[in-house]
Design a protein that fits this description.
Structural class: alpha+beta
Shape: elongated
Distance between the termini: 34 Å
Number of domains: 3
Number of strands: 22
Radius of gyration: 34 Å
Number of helices: 22
Largest sheet: 7 strands, mixed
Helix content: 40-55%
Strand content: 15-25%
């Protein structure tokens, strides 16, 4: 039977915006008729007239319920609609019309309240959908023209004024501004954007006038992918959900059989009163239906997934929330994960009578021919300090041997320290080792005869790296760092942020082998990387977490969980969310079993009336489960 026992899980009217008004009318009219019937029966002693009114209440409030119940019974699926219909008409058979009408009215009210409460857990998707404006202003022949976002083509120039939402992903072609990207990244601080910077649909232009060149169609934006991913994630069932579904599938027929036996054995074998035991069997039938149990897990998972999406964390399914609870070790890539992935110059050391300015001129001139991150760091530092670049003659780059060329007729060579191992030049090993012990990469500049200087660069650690690692360790998780950098740099960074163990000098395929080793050693492994270079290792781990996925389609597609912003603390948030979600799932399951079990036991001696079985054992319990699940989204 699974989730189908509850209308709140699969309402036919979910897409109809007027569903609330229609149901409120039914509730008000049915309530008035029910009160009128009770008045006639209890005060006026008009039994026949009251039974007619009770029957009208049953038909008016229960039309859709009875219709769905009969349809499911014809397919041999005895869902909650069928059980409630059976209970209501059973009550009329034994002359308890008030009970029958109350059952149908309360169940209809329960449906309405469950749908209304459960709708709140789906609001995040609606909020995401509303982030993107339906229209946009584009420049055509120098004039501003309003078009629907679906008409925007790649290459169109859009006008976005202060306070407007950006309608499509693109690149700033004119102007500068601060952009509120909280809807995508969960980051509250606005991001500064200038010409050439990427901007995303659904974010808000807070200050300046912008012209944006569209780079994606409306159905290919980062926001549209987030919406699709979250919608798909909410449909994907966790292991607990699958188990509960299977349990409900077998549980329901057993409950029906027990209810039949509760009626048949006392009446036909023990010769006890027909009405008494028929009524008790109906109560048992209603109270034992696993509606609250069936929705206990899915509503919790939906709440967790949508809450995470609002915080800039995309989770591809409830199974990954469960996996995070069992993770024993978290493996981090270094570059772009624990560090910002943007090396910065930290030291400029001149040797052999060369000035710092001359050294930077040589380095900047050679590195201007390369796109390597270290080359970009040296070029940026040189530009900042107004260093002049010279023409390079006979330039050539040798893999593993650095850059070579002639500047002002003199030969120079620049490269990392390990690229000079086979060189006959005398390198200042003690100085290089000292720099590397500090976590820096030593770049050597040499002429044909001798080393002329060293430039040290270092990949800046993320501000939250140390705190995040410390908090994860407090939770009992082991932390590991994998890097392609050398041992000294890896050791220095590990010591600085408190990583438990590290492995250096690894190629991408060697990282995958390390993940294999951890999978054998630990029960469950999570891997955090940049989602591009680390894709194989992310795929191999139980849970792959991609950092900074806002501009990376690859990261969103390959990882199990994508952190839209470069915020390492979201890894701890994930662990916390997983623990909180699984705790609430356990609470919901426990509450459902205890309450249902207690009511079932009390049904045998006749201590639970039919209306209370619906009001408390079904409606009340389901609302408690939904309300408890909604706590996941609250901090």
């Amino acid at each position: 039977m699974g989730n189908k026992c509850c209308s709140s899980c699969s309402s036919d009217e979910e897409q109809d915006p007027s569903w609330k008004k229609k149901k409120i009318v039914v509730i008000v009219v049915s309530g008035i008729l029910l009160l009128a019937g009770l008045y006639l029966e209890q005060i006026m002693s008009e039994h026949s007239a009251s039974q007619v009114i009770f029957f009208l209440v049953t038909l008016f409030a229960g039309y859709q319920i009875i219709k769905k119940g009969l349809a499911s019974a014809m397919k041999f699926r005895f869902d909650m609609n069928f059980l409630m219909s059976l209970a209501a008409f059973g009550a009329f058979i034994i002359g308890e019309g008030a009970e029958g009408a109350s059952v149908m009215f309360l169940y209809f009210l329960a449906e309405f309240l469950e749908e209304y409460a459960a709708e709140r857990s789906r609001k995040s998707i609606g909020a995401l959908l509303n982030l993107t404006p339906e229209t946009a202003i584009i420049l055509r022949d120098g004039k501003e023209t309003k078009v629907h976002v679906q008409e925007i083509k790649i290459g169109d120039i859009l006008v976005v004024k202060p306070g407007d939402k950006i309608p499509i992903d693109g690149v700033v072609s004119s102007g500068s501004s601060s952009i509120n990207q909280a809807s995508i990244t969960g980051e509250s601080m606005p991001a500064s954007k200038k010409i050439g910077d990427e901007v995303f649909a659904g974010t808000i232009n807070e200050e300046g006038y912008l012209e944006i060149k569209a780079t994606k169609a409306s159905n290919q934006t980062v926001l549209s992918k987030i919406i699709k991913l979250v919608e798909n994630a909410e449909k994907e069932k966790s292991k607990t959900e699958i188990f509960i579904d299977r349990f409900a599938r077998y549980y329901t027929p057993i409950v029906i059989l027990i209810s039949v036996l509760v009626f048949v054995v006392p009446v036909f074998i023990l010769k006890l009163p027909f009405e008494t035991w028929f009524y008790r069997s109906l109560v048992l039938l209603v109270v034992s239906c696993p509606c609250a149990l069936a929705i206990s897990t899915p509503v919790s998972m939906v709440s967790a997934i949508t809450s995470a999406a609002k915080n800039g964390v995309l989770i591809k399914g409830g199974s990954y929330i469960e996996e995070m609870k069992t993770v024993k070790v978290i493996v981090f890539d270094k570059t772009g994960t624990l560090t910002e992935g943007k090396p910065e110059v930290t030291d400029v050391i001149s040797l052999n009578k060369h000035s710092e300015k001359e050294l930077l001129e040589i380095a900047a001139s050679l590195e201007s021919k390369s796109n390597h991150p270290i080359a970009q760091a040296i070029s940026a530092y040189s530009n900042k300090n107004g260093v002049k670049k010279h023409d390079v003659e006979h330039f050539h780059a040798v893999s593993g041997k650095g850059l070579h060329g002639n500047i002002k007729g003199r030969y120079y060579h620049i490269g990392k320290s390990d690229e000079f191992l086979d060189s006959k030049l005398k390198t200042p090993k003690a100085m290089i080792e000292k720099l590397e012990d500090e976590g820096k990469t030593a770049v050597i500049i040499a002429s044909k005869d001798h080393v002329v200087g060293i430039i040290a660069v270092m990949d800046k650690l993320r501000e939250t790296a140390g705190e995040t690692i410390s908090n994860l360790k407090k939770r009992g998780l082991r932390t590991v760092m994998l890097t392609g950098d050398n041992e000294r740099v890896a050791h220095a960074i590990s010591e600085k942020i408190g990583i438990d163990e590290h492995y250096a000098g690894l190629l991408p395929e060697e990282k995958v082998k390390k993940i294999d080793e951890f999978l054998e050693k630990y029960e469950c492994v999570a891997m955090v990387g940049d989602g591009v270079n680390d894709a194989p290792a992310l795929a191999k781990a139980h849970v792959g977490i991609a950092m900074g996925a806002i501009g990376s389609d690859v990261a969103i597609e390959t990882a199990d969980i994508a952190l839209m912003h470069d915020d390492l603390s979201k890894v701890e948030y994930l662990v916390s969310l997983s623990n909180k979600t699984l705790l609430i799932v356990k609470q919901n399951i426990f509450i459902s079993i205890i309450v249902k079990g207690s009511f079932a036991i009390l049904a045998f001696p006749g201590l639970v009336p039919l209306w209370l079985a619906v009001a408390a054992g079904d409606m009340g319990l389901s609302l408690i489960v939904i309300g408890n699940a909604l706590r996941i989204g609250k901090k």
